[in-house]
Amino acid sequence: MKQERLRILHLEDDPMDAELVLLTLTSEGLDCEVQVVSRRDEFSVALERGGMDLILADFALPAFDGMTALSMVRQKLPDLPFVFVSGKLGEEAAIESLKSGATDYVLKSRLSRLVPAVQRALTEAQERAKQRQTERDLEVAHAEIEKRAEDYRNLFNSIRDVIVVADHNRTILHVNQPALHDIFGYESQEVIGKSSRILYAKNEDYDSTGKEVFDAKTRVKGKLVELHFRRKSGEVFIGELYAMKRLDRFGNVTGNISIFRDTSERKKAEADLRESELRRMQLQLELVYAAEIQAKLLPRVYPQIEGFEIAARCLPAKQVGGDFYDWQQVSPTLFNLTLGDVMGKGMAAAMLMATVRAALHAVTLYNRPAQAVHLAEKALNEDLENSESFVTLFHAQLDSAARTLSFVDCGHGYVFVRRGNGAVETLNPRGLPLGVQGDEVYLEGNVHFRKGDVMVLYSDGLVDARPELELTHEKLASHLAGKKSAQEMADTLVALTGKPDPQPDDITVLVLRAV
């Protein structure tokens, strides 16, 4: 170890000898700092403190001998240079000291050898330190290589595709597990050393890949092909093979690598997906047609009613829905108005809605509201019971000449009248929805209209779209102030929902305004 100043611990009980040793070292140009000790306890304390580059020791002291000192040093500092400097040292003792770990020995009568012995001891210590560091570096490098090799083995065996490494003759050298067992059913020892032909279902596939890719004379280029392979059980399956040359670090071809992938499940999944997509497209097309048909079932033009104007909006939650509105002209002054809400939404509700609408059309033309609803319930009762559904319904007949409205509310309730002065009235009586209980006796209610009065009919989807607004009759009526037409009022009410996406339920509004 190269130091700016050489630090030496000198075990010596004779001050004159110690002074002579120091003089010898400095006279030869060594810059050194020497601590002289003569007792075991002093020597032990100095060792614990450390920091020395070299130990010089007399072989025999009155209460402490050099061999004991050497043993203490080698236990704590095995590489620290240790040189005996003694007045007399027999051949056997000298040999024993060297065997015990002393670097060298110098007789006090021949101190001319001291500096060369010290320099050699220091040089050897440096070489030993370098060697030990090299050994430690090699151990670390070896451990890293082992770790990387283990990582590569784990990675190789973790890949789900089968990787076959083969020589020029396509004899299998390495293969990864458990992929080999999972895909082909073999254990590695069953295929290593054998031709990769056993993995192919057809000999012509094996031969063609050999000619196109694995021939050592062809260009170094990989190729992906779809072939039939054979499992250990004999089962043939469709798979992909990525075939490529195996190269060394200089780019020389040393064999080939085959990557096998079982695509049979993927092929089946792709076929199922195509079929599912086809069914989805067919269903989507049917829904488009159904939406067109349902839209055509709603009235296309507003009726011309003397002294009144009417407007309506219907927004299905899906492409089709269970809400509907309708009107019929019974006579020049009599008009039937209906708003219904079938439980649920989507195709099932839309089909039932069409049935309810048709039943009402059949009985409302020549019957007052209560009788018409009673007859419709009789006709619909079995269908509603079988479908485990029900319908809320508001059905009314407007006499425009008398400016009166007779109505039946079948469990609907989402209706109010806003008078011209802003007062809000809830309409009664109310009965049960259609399909809840048979033989319900429905009672009629009546409303008289004056100029500026407005009746608003709506479905629960208007309220459910924005539950945080708590849209009561009074709050809805307040939004109609200042609106000049029934259409503007209907649009205003629908706009309150913000048209949420997804829309939780069908939204339907019908506004009748007396002018």
TrEMBL record:
CDD domains: PAS (cd00130), REC (cd00156). Residues 7-123 form the Response regulatory domain. It comes from the Bacteria. Residues 223-275 form the PAC domain. The modification 4-aspartylphosphate is found at residue 58. Residues 148-195 form the PAS domain. Pfam families: PAS_9, Response_reg, SpoIIE. Keywords: Hydrolase, Phosphoprotein. This is SpoIIE family protein phosphatase. The lineage of its organism: Bacteria, Pseudomonadati, Thermodesulfobacteriota, Desulfuromonadia, Geobacterales.
